[in-house]
Design brief:
about 260 residues; alpha/beta; Rossmann fold; 2 domains; 6-stranded parallel sheet; two-stranded antiparallel sheet; 11 helices; disordered N terminus
Amino acid sequence: MKIMKNIRRIATAVAFSATGLAAQAAMASPVKNVVLVHGYFADGSGWQAVSEILTRDGYKVSVVQMPETSFKDDIAATKRIVDAQDGPTILVGHSYGGAVITEAGNDARVAGLVYVAAFQPEAGESLHSLTEKMPATTKAIKSTRDGHLYLEPSHFRADFAADVPEAETAFMASSQVMPAVESFTAPVTQPAWRARPSWAIVASADRTVNPNLERWMAKRANSAIVEVASSHAAYLSHPSDVAGVIERAATETGNR
């Protein structure tokens, strides 16, 4: 009888050990899900080059198409995609998308955050309050009579994507998404970067968001910072650099 009990104890110990080793191996694996969130004046199609690199390298990539009708609606659209993932996820935001992932990133599936020339608000801060601290170079962002924002087409390339081919930026200017002014003034309530590891790409030639503001926000959030000599549209002009930071985030998060 004692022999049988000992055998059962040993078998149980081996089973628990195997489970623990499997869990450790899973934790050491890079995160394989990536969700990409666009910013103002653009849509999800701008992530195509970054998505192709990540997909080639074995990542499962999903792109959020935010309605940009309100901050709440954009958070909901992002969480909808995050909730559809089958495991831990790296959540990536460009520009205004940084504010969105700062709130949506509290989802349990989010393992890490990557900010690309993006806003990283603290609780109670909005894009409006942050840009008042350190204004951007551009003065070409205007509002419509019904409460939406746009970037004057004649300034679009110089202020948004100076290092992107002119034909591409001309089309972007004429097809830009006009976000609700409300999303510019809505405050973040619970910043996910306080509970999640984060990485930040600073676009050093950015005219849409002040690069010094990007640096200041990233340092405050204790993000790992990578600087790229890029316009605001770093994901378009430097897709390899952006994908590289996302892959670094996926690897380092998986190894935590």
